[in-house]
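Example (one chain per record):
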Amino acid sequence: MKIVFATNNQHKLSEIRDILGEQFDILSLNDIGCHDDIPETADTLEGNALLKAQYIVEHYGMSCFADDTGLEVDALGGAPGIYSARYAGKGHDSEANMTKLLAELGENNNRKARFRTVIALLEVNDGEVTQHLFEGIVNGTIIHERKGTEGFGYDPIFQPEGYQQTFAELGMDIKNTISHRARAVKKLAEYLR
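Predicted structure:
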């Protein structure tokens, strides 16, 4: 089954392909020749995921799913949230984002956080479009300093509940079974199968 995943983020793409397995042919934006900067102007993860999927359906007529993920930190009122990727500026700079987050938390003892992923699936069948949303959440803690080298984004400072290591220390094999994205993708895969 061919389906478009509205991303060019290679980390996300390989993560999704690993989770979904070989029964799905997952196409990236690059694979379908889409080089547009799809606007993410909604004020919720759900809204941004839908905007991306709708763009592909409208311009390419293909079934598509898109995700938006946010790190929500209790002590920061849910920030960075929808701004997680560009928290420290437009450049999607993970190091700068982590530095800013750790600085804003300072010595605050409330380090509870959660990663939340929302996947919007728009299926095109005989001109009809149906919409589905799938959510995955993993709770955890923001540690005081970076640990580990695997993964991407905030992985070196996020320690999931029930583990003594960060996502970056656990490695992709374990992360791909317990992460927020894995949980949302599992729901998507169950639906698609």
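Caption: DSSP finds six helices and seven strands in the chain.
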